[in-house]
Specification:
Distance between the termini: 66 Å
Protein name: MFS transporter
Keywords: Methyltransferase, RNA-binding, S-adenosyl-L-methionine, Transferase
Bound molecules: S-adenosylmethionine
InterPro entries: MeTrfase_RsmB-F_NOP2_cat, MeTrfase_RsmB-F_NOP2_dom, RCMT, SAM-dependent_MTases_sf
GO molecular function: RNA binding; RNA methyltransferase activity
Family: Belongs to the class I-like SAM-binding methyltransferase superfamily. RsmB/NOP family.
Number of domains: 3
CATH superfamily of the largest domain: Vaccinia Virus protein VP39
CATH class of the largest domain: Alpha Beta
Length: 432
């Protein structure tokens, strides 16, 4: 397919996902199934166009004064990919499956591409209804935070200390031009190409050998700061597919006991294979047998560290999942806040005196970050917040600079601040 035909295809896919309110991945899959002529490079390029258009959905619609799929794609080509009106006009020839030629209004709007007079939520490409909750945490930086979340994300890997090292992987993957991560000692970063695609790291022999996992550097950092020590009893209550479980096992050097569970046992399924590849030997997966069943009840009073990687809106990962930004519905935030309170209360019941909860979200919204901790502390008199300075000082390495990103109870990472996904971490300790 020509670059112009790919643009037409992206407009078609966007039309489908907007009309039928379906996930971008479903619309892309269906498009591919009914267009067998499209090769894998075409599909990847079309997906990249669709995701880029979703990243800048509000600002493109404003600059183009239209919210049609065509306006969103053309606006994104100017606003995100930096194409001039002339370059876009050349692509829109109307021939050989290319989009129809630009009209005078489109030409003028692409040439000017202006967000002058746009409200902040549009400048930030954050849904209007969510803007007050989002802006609450960032004050004057809120628009810049939103803009950084509307960009593309790099691909980060975590060197698995049980099998490899960052230096060894730096050499092994040199053909893909890795850079060391700025914060996590185990992170390597790969920048996406002009078309938004990154290297196929999961096809690397060192990946199959367990040398690394794909994991955003922010996710690595909050897991490191959670403070798991070799020999401890650690639980990962919201383990999902185990991204943080694997990192915890490596940080513990396979010493001590690590238990992984999740409310949704199906989500734990990939963890079995990932554990085998990683060489982690101190992990036990516990499956809840029924609603309300506590699969870790035998550990009550023995747990040193409970990692609560809580269910949340995922607003910190909008760079990787821009579809989710526009699909999140009013009401979802209140539901997640309820889930967060529930899982924090569970963690509290299992800790031993002096034990800690490391509460983590991939959210940018104070309601599910500091406010969740404030509510937890109000309900649990026997717990106190661990000051961030203490958390940073007790982690091996030099993390003092992160104190700049302190919130009332914890730490907020973001693409704008740390070049990572948006993650929040707060630690609390059982004092009675
Ligand atoms: C952010 S995801 C976990 C991601 C995972 N820790 C990782 O690093 O790959 C949150 C998980 O919490 C689970 N969850 C939701 N409510 C829960 C609850 N009340 N107790 C335990 N897990 C819960 C969800 O099924 C989901 O897998």
């Amino acid at each position: 397919m020509t670059p112009a035909a790919r643009i037409s295809a992206a407009i078609e896919v966007l039309d489908d996902l907007i009309q039928r309110r379906r996930p971008a991945s479903d619309a892309l899959k269906d498009w591919g199934l009914s267009r067998r002529f499209a090769g894998s490079k075409d599909r990847a390029a079309i997906a990249s166009l669709v995701y880029d258009a979703l990243r800048r959905r509000a600002s493109s619609a404003f600059a183009m004064a239209a919210e049609t799929p065509r306006a969103l794609v053309l606006g994104m080509l100017a606003g995100l990919r930096g194409l001039s009106a002339e370059e876009i006009a050349l692509l829109c020839s109307g021939e050989n499956h290319a989009p129809m030629p630009l009209d005078a209004e489109e030409w003028g709007r692409l040439a000017a591409f202006s967000l002058d007079g746009a409200p902040d939520w549009i400048g930030a490409d954050v849904p209007e209804w969510l803007w007050p909750a989002f802006a609450a945490g960032f004050g004057r930086d809120a628009v810049g935070e939103g803009q950084a979340l509307a960009g593309r994300a790099p691909i980060d890997i975590r060197a698995n200390r049980l099998k490899s090292s960052r230096d060894a992987l730096m050499a092994d993957l040199s053909h893909a031009s890795p850079e060391p991560g700025a914060w996590s000692p185990d992170a390597l970063r790969f920048q996406p190409g002009h078309d938004g695609r990154g290297p196929s790291l999961q096809a690397e022999p060192s990946f199959f050998a367990g040398g690394f996992e794909i994991q955003d550097e922010g996710s690595q950092l909050v897991t490191l700061l959670a403070g798991a020590q070799p020999g401890q009893t650690v639980i990962d209550l919201c383990a999902g597919a185990g991204g943080k479980t694997l990192a915890l096992a490596a940080l513990m050097g396979n010493q001590g006991r690590l238990f992984a569970t999740d409310l949704d046992s199906r989500r734990l399924a990939p963890l079995h294979e990932r554990l085998a590849r990683s060489g982690a030997t101190n992990v036990e997966i516990r499956i809840p047998r029924s609603r309300g069943h506590e699969p870790l009840i035998d550990l009550a009073g023995q747990v040193d560290l409970a990692l609560v990687d809580a269910p949340c809106t995922g607003s910190g990962t909008w760079r990787r999942n821009p579809d989710a930004k526009w699909r999140v519905r009013p009401g979802a935030l209140a539901e997640r806040v309820k889930d967060q309170a529930e899982v924090l209360a569970r963690a509290a019941r299992l800790l031993k005196p002096g034990g800690r909860i490391a509460y983590i979200t991939c959210s940018m919204l104070p309601d599910e970050n500091d406010e969740a901790i404030r509510a937890f502390l109000a309900r649990h008199a026997g717990f106190a917040a661990v000051p961030l300075t203490q958390v940073l000082a007790s982690t091996e390495g030099d993390f003092g600079l992160l104190a700049r990103f302190a919130t009332e109870f914890g730490l907020q990472l973001s693409p704008h601040r740390t070049g990572t996904d948006g993650f929040y971490l707060a630690c609390t300790q059982r004092i009675a």
